[in-house]
Amino acid sequence: MAQVESTSPRQISRFTLYFFGALGGILFGYDLGVISGVLPFIGKLWGLDALDKGVITASLSVGAIFGALASGRVNERLGRRKTIMVSAVIVIIGTLGASFAPSFSFLLISRFVIGLGIGLSSSTVPTYLSELAPAKVRGAMGALNQIFIVSGILIAFLTSYFLGPVSAWRWIVFQVSFSRL
């Protein structure tokens, strides 16, 4: 006799949904905002001009564009959950590269890689959460994600403010890889 699969939806607690929504948003915001505290240090260290600083800042966004463009195909091939895991690994690798970057070029490539992971996750996480959330909280999940992106940017600014006086730019960048583990 053939077994019949259950078609009932998987039960996920609201706390789990809120936690992952918050974590994804905070990390995305942190990655976007952290460069503001790093630029003064790398500018002096590597003698960067305004164009170089702009390119370093934009490299994450350019990577995010490519990551977001690829997210549809990656989601179809791997599924949303695995795509989120892959994007986290990509961001960790990029963050480690950025934290230990010996040169402008290496930091530029590392931030582009971080952007790829952010682009993958920024389109996947809200979709995944809305698919899993009960209908009555789906709108709140989207708003929650946006609130935590801005919170992540604030956390990056605060981290830069408190670690800036000790010239700890590598530690400021490295913070995000610890939070992803």
TrEMBL record:
Listed PANTHER family: D-XYLOSE-PROTON SYMPORTER-LIKE 2 (PTHR48023:SF4)
Protein name as it appears in the record: MFS transporter
Species name: Kibdelosporangium lantanae
Membrane topology, from the record: Multi-pass membrane protein
Xref: SUPFAM superfamilies: MFS general substrate transporter
Compartments reported by the entry: Cell membrane
Signal peptide annotation: none
Family membership: Belongs to the major facilitator superfamily. Sugar transporter (TC 2.A.1.1) family.
Keyword tags: Membrane, Transmembrane, Transmembrane helix, Transport
Regions that span the bilayer: 17-42, 54-72, 84-102, 108-129, 141-163
Domain Major facilitator superfamily (MFS) profile span(s) in chain numbering: 17-181
Xref: Pfam families: Sugar_tr (PF00083)
InterPro entries: MFS_dom, MFS_sugar_transport-like, MFS_Sugar_Transporter, MFS_trans_sf, Sugar/inositol_transpt, Sugar_transporter_CS
